[in-house]
Design a protein that fits this description.
The structure is a single chain. By secondary structure, this protein is mostly helical. The chain has two domains: about 80 residues, Tetratricopeptide repeat domain (Serine Threonine Protein Phosphatase 5, Tetratricopeptide repeat); about 55 residues, no CATH class. It contains seven helices and no strands. α1 packs antiparallel against α2 and α2 runs antiparallel to α3. The longest helix is centred in the N-terminal third of the chain and has 14 residues. The protein is globular and about 45 Å long.
């Protein structure tokens, strides 16, 4: 584990090297995920994002991929990179379309709007409306 801030960079480099040299190792996704969590705890969100990204791209079938992609968006939010948050949300929606959190497309549009990418925000809203055209019925109390 990467507990000490001074050891973070060297350990990540060794871990990334290990995962790239032995990509078929079953424990590599877990190692990357744990490294990313340690980076988050050390407030090194850029390094955490790097580890999550490597896990997602190298091991898309891993059981850690869904959580890594979700956490990737959180890291970008901590870094203030709203367009990257929105991109991570869109990737999550594409990779895991049946998930309840995939219906949270409006939040993706909001992140694009915060990044002043209004065209992308509008596109996300339009796609969401096409995908979920039915408006939930209002209860009598809301009418």
């Amino acid at each position: 584990m990467l507990r000490k801030n001074g050891e973070v960079g060297g350990r990540l480099r060794r871990l990334l090297s290990y995962c790239q040299e032995l990509p078929a190792v079953k424990l590599a996704p877990n190692a990357l995920f744990n490294a990313a969590l340690d980076f988050e705890k050390a407030n090194k969100y850029d390094k955490a994002a790097e580890a999550y990204e490597l896990l997602i791209t190298s091991y898309p079938e891993s059981d850690k991929t869904k959580d890594a992609l979700f956490n990737l968006g959180l890291c970008y939010e901590k870094l203030g990179n709203m367009d990257k948050v929105a991109e991570a949300n869109e990737r999550y929606t594409r990779m895991f379309p049946g998930e309840k959190t995939s219906r949270q497309c409006p939040s993706t549009a909001q992140y694009y709007a915060k990044a002043n990418l209004f065209g992308k925000a509008v596109t996300v809203y339009r796609n969401f409306i096409r995908q979920y055209p039915k408006v939930p019925k209002r209860s009598k109390r809301c009418s």
